[in-house]
């Protein structure tokens, strides 16, 4: 066995018990909402055939896919001249036939196509699993991270879009966030604008430039639009829509007149209006905090991928990028030969949400709950006396430990402190004689003598 | 984008919603017990540095580790003569510096060493994560599968061993299993036997042969022992211990006389007796089903790894290999330069437990619970009427869906059937007029008209 000082692979993380409890709190809270809205969990393998992933994420994405080396004598089948040329690109497909999942969307598409005879449409699924990307690691960017996706495939109803808004609202509220904005846009509105300006072929350039309004301001966007092939005249036509202001209704009103001649643009507006109508209908039920939804025409999410509504969520309590996003994409499964299936979905940025909750101190006490009571261990007699009491606690559903040796009390107390165990039980000769044991509240320092049954009553919640 | 017929990577699996609910049921049930016994969850990355894993699993194990191809121009740094030789083994470390987790034990050891200043001992952790092995796939053997491990490091108390017995007992009972045997042995007893026979250097050969008693019978074991270097005389001394019979107490009694001259052997017996005493003490509490514990001298688990108690669990209800196992290993972290830490742990074979529960039909109804009620969608008026009702259900914690379009009722009903949704609500013009909606019980076919509030009362549990 080699004797090396161990380290983590670059860009990866361990999660401690404290971190795991908090991460599970986030995932459990979100999953519970997914289920209430009729979504069911699936999982796909970490490894996919390389051919399943290649070509789905663009050239840059392909480079970031982690490939798995074939097992055994992987060079045996490689042509000798490929080896002497030392051409990494050319050789890759000969020595690697599997790769790690890069996102959850392509495996989901593969899943739908492979299981099309077993699933009934619309198929509502969520998936919370790690993905791997060979990105250069940096603060907040890891090579292994969890994605948390919820999608429905096979339904073009805009009720789905409306429900995703409520899923965001409910999940993030349940996590304790109180001030966040759900931005909505529609790809067809962006297409309509490009059409009206007369440069439909430049739609990608336009959205990329407009997407930067927050970062580089109007001047920056204009500069970029000029660089990307728009004229001053185009830009004067674009300006009113880039700087659109007012309530959602006012914005939609303005857009309707700007896009009056664009079928596509008007269809996008109608979709947004229908989504809003569904949200209003759903919110007629009581007890729901109204979501803050903003039509944001600069929202393009850089992607040439969405075809209808686009979403993004931003917290207003902490400076942080988006904590979620998604949208409608037609033809999800076309890449695997199953045409005509439309999908819509959103995802939650779990790592960022973690950082937000941490910064706002929003993790509840219960998200630190491990062992509730530690029974100290003075000597063998006390240990024997403690055994059935220990088990009594557990039978009552209380997480309990007996310190496993009769170490110094100070050591046992600092063990309880380190593990954030809120109660310690002291059993000495007094306690064994009178049958009442001492319960110490580690927060207040208060001690009192009680029976095991009384302590169980006290600690059960 | 390529247009290929998609397939799964060899030896990997998708998990459908129905399977996920059952898998989660198993993991949640087991984790809940871990927590009650004071264990906390950690997670480690899927990828480790190759050097962290290499040399820990023997030569055969090393071959089964999935290596990850370095990103970018991975051949650039390889010596040209290595390439022309086409020697796969020699080139591997030049083109791969990371690998996929092979088990949870080595990453746990790395975790303990790297975080030794942050954790307080004894450190009680559980970990439920996938591992990857380049095994030849076959029935029941996958290249990606979950391990479910619970270990404590830094405590030599035999209370830990006793608690693991109760953890098995409680977790498997909670899963509905009623007839299973927890086998226990101690490596020191095996060492003592080898010592008494006078062949301590053949201990591995002896345990490997004895371990096969169940499979090849006494004759087979004797044949193998002869082949492995034991004499007829050795075997006549071995026979009584191999064929040991009676209660645990009787077996321990016989062993004590056989091993009277072996310090090590007697120490092993004393450890088993202490574990039994702890179990008896813990079981003085009420409400606990007594575990079926059997001292099994043939239990060796083939491994040269354990140093103290060894466990294995076998269900008696279904023909199946062991559904769990573990033991005490000294010097867990020595491989990473931290000496003198002892550990003990067990694991649950989740895939096998799944198969057992499936075969015995032990998955509870609740382990299929997805959407509880589907609201059918007749037309636009009914849809609008349904929206706040839909949300009322969800606000009451009831998983509910509205069929997202006004498809034919038959189609909507078969959607409910396929998703095993137990209730469907019908809203037609009658219902909208009188404010009472029709609830159809999909199991009984029974229909009745109720208010939304009455339905909520009925479906809440």
Structure summary:
Two copies of one chain form a homodimer. Chain A is an alpha+beta fold and 461 residues long. Chain A is 43% helix and 17% strand.
Structural write-up:
2 copies of one chain form a homodimer. Helices cover 43% and strands 17% of the residues of chain A. The first copy, chain A, has 461 residues and is of the alpha+beta class. In chain A, helix 8 (187-197) runs antiparallel to helix 13 (263-282) and helix 9 (203-210) runs antiparallel to helix 10 (213-227). In chain A, 44% of the residues are buried. The interface between A and B is large, with 123 and 123 residues. Chains A, B: It is an enzyme of class 6 (ligase). Chains A, B: One of its GO terms (biological process) is histidyl-tRNA aminoacylation. Chains A, B: Keywords: Aminoacyl-tRNA synthetase, ATP-binding, Cytoplasm, Ligase, Nucleotide-binding, Protein biosynthesis.
What does the radius of gyration of chain A come to? 29 Å
Give the strand content of chain A: 15-25%
What percent of residues of chain A adopt helix (DSSP H or I)? 40-55%
Estimate the global geometry of chain A from the Cα principal axes. globular
Q: Hey, which two chains have the biggest interface?
A: A-B, 123 and 123 residues
What's the CATH topology name of the largest domain in chain A? BirA Bifunctional Protein, domain 2
Distance separating the two termini of chain A? 49 Å
Name the strands of the widest sheet of chain A in spatial order.
1-5-6-11-10-9-7-8
CATH homologous superfamily name of the largest domain in chain A?
Bira Bifunctional Protein, Domain 2
Tell how many strands the DSSP assignment of chain A holds: 16
Query: Oligomeric form of this entry?
Result: homodimer
CATH architectural category of the largest domain in chain A: 2-Layer Sandwich
Number of domains of chain A: 2
Low-confidence stretches of chain A: none
Q: Biggest β-sheet of chain A: count, sense, barrel?
A: 8 strands, mixed
Discrete helix count of chain A: 18
Q: What structural class do the secondary elements of chain A suggest?
A: alpha+beta
What is the typical, i.e. mean, pLDDT of chain A?
92
Organism (chains A, B): Pedobacter psychroterrae
GO cellular component, one term (chains A, B): cytoplasm
Subcellular location (chains A, B): Cytoplasm
Domain Aminoacyl-transfer RNA synthetases class-II family profile (chains A, B): 1-388
């Amino acid at each position: 066995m080699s004797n090396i000082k161990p380290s983590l692979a670059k860009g990866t993380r361990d999660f401690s018990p404290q971190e795991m409890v908090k991460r599970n709190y986030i995932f459990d809270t979100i999953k519970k909402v997914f289920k209430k809205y009729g979504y069911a969990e699936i999982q796909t393998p970490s490894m996919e055939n390389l051919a399943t992933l290649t070509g789905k994420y663009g050239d840059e994405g392909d480079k970031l896919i982690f490939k798995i080396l074939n097992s055994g004598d992987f060079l045996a089948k490689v042509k000798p001249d490929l080896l002497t040329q030392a051409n990494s690109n050319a050789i890759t497909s000969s020595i690697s036939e599997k790769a790690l999942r890069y996102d959850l969307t392509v495996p989901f598409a593969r899943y739908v196509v492979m299981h099309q005879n077993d699933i009934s449409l619309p198929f509502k699924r969520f998936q919370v699993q790690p993905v791997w990307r060979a990105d250069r690691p940096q603060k907040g960017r890891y090579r292994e991270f969890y994605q948390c996706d919820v999608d429905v495939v096979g339904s073009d109803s805009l009720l789905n879009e409306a429900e995703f808004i409520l899923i965001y609202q409910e999940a993030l509220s349940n996590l304790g966030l109180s001030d966040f904005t759900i931005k909505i846009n529609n790809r067809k509105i962006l297409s309509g604008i490009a059409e009206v300006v007369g440069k439909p072929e430049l739609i990608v350039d336009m959205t990329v430039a407009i997407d930067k309004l927050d970062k580089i301001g109007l001047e920056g966007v204009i500069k970029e639009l000029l660089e990307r092939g728009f004229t001053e005249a185009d830009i004067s036509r674009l300006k009113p829509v880039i700087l659109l202001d007012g309530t959602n209704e006012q914005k939609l009103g303005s857009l309707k007149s700007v896009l009056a001649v664009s079928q596509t643009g008007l269809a996008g507006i109608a979709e947004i209006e229908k989504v809003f109508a569904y949200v209003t209908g759903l919110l007629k039920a009581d007890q729901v905090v109204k979501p803050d939804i903003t039509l944001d025409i600069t929202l393009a999410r850089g992607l040439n991928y969405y075809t209808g509504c686009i979403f993004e969520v931003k917290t207003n309590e902490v400076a942080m990028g988006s904590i979620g996003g998604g949208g409608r994409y037609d033809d999800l499964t076309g890449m695997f030969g199953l045409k005509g299936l439309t999908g819509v979905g959103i995802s939650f940025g779990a790592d960022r949400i973690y950082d937000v909750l941490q910064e706002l101190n929003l993790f509840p006490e219960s998200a630190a709950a491990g062992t509730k009571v530690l029974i100290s261990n003075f000597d063998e007699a006390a240990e024997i006396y403690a055994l059935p009491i220990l088990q009594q606690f557990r039978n009552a559903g209380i997480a309990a430990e007996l310190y496993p040796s009769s170490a110094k009390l100070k050591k046992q107390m600092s063990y309880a402190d380190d593990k954030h165990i809120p109660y310690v039980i002291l059993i000495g000769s007094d306690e064994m004689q009178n049958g009442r044991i001492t319960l110490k509240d580690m927060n207040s320092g208060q001690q009192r003598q009680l029976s095991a049954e009384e302590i169980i009553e006290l600690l059960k919640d």
